[in-house]
Amino acid sequence: MISSKTEYYHYLNQDKKALGIKPVGIAGKFMSYLSPNHIWKFQKTMRKLEYYTNCKNKSINKLYILYLRYRFKNVSLKLGFSIPINVFGPGLSIVHYGTIVINRNAKIGSNCRMHACVNIGASGGESGAPQIGDNVYIAPGAKIYGNIKIANNIAIGANAVVNKSCEQENVALAGVPAKPIGSVDIKKIIKHI
After folding, report:
1. What is the three-class DSSP state of 156?
2. Which residues pair with 118 in a beta bridge?
3. Would the pLDDT of 58 be above 90?
4. Is 74 helix (H, G, I), strand (E, B) or coil?
5. What is the pTM assigned to this prediction?
6. What is the pLDDT of residues 9-37, one digit of tens each?
7. In Å, how far are 119, 131, 137 from 145, measured between CA atoms?
């Protein structure tokens, strides 16, 4: 969770690295104006909202926070994302537009790479949601739910349904219900770590 301006810039830099966004010159800025990266716009807005909500939630800033929430909601609806603030650690990489639904009680560590049609939520009216470690790859269509814990360095396969904790690191989870199917070198999947 962002708790200072230094952390805010750290989160932005790690997200930019995870998305593969490199510094650009004047021509690149013009091209990004004509054809913007909407996922990067979403993540920048999310991080700014997190920073202002966590660190600057006083007096006149409350009006700016309302404006940021409005912008965040608009870009979220445009992309099909239902992602609350203060859930993801630094280094988030959302690969595609499309439906992504995350419960506000979920916590996901740094360097998460996630595809479309992912759902991370509570189970059957409970308030407990998944607590996911660092360096986790979540393939398209994965469903992760319940009061569970997922270890670091995990790859979750396409359309997997994860409803039980996995404390073992460096494994791939797949199937319905998901279970470990083998070991994985997460650095081959998440290239920026």
Report:
1. strand
2. 100
3. no
4. helix
5. 0.92
6. 999 999 999 999 887 777 777 777 777 88
7. 8, 10, 16
**Paired residues of 94 in beta bridges:** 114
DSSP designation for 22: -
**Three-class DSSP category at 171:** strand
In the chain the first and final C-alpha atoms are separated, in Å, by: 20
Q: What are the tokens at 29?
A: 């800025």
Strands across the sheet with 118-121, in order?
81-82, 100-102, 118-121, 143-145, 161-162
The two structure tokens encoding residue 140: 């398209």
Residue closest to 14 by CA, chosen among 86, 88, 85: 88
DSSP letter, residue 166 = B
CA distance 156 to 110: 16
**Backbone torsion region of residue 164, taken as left when φ is above 0, otherwise alpha when ψ lies between -120 and 50, otherwise beta:** beta
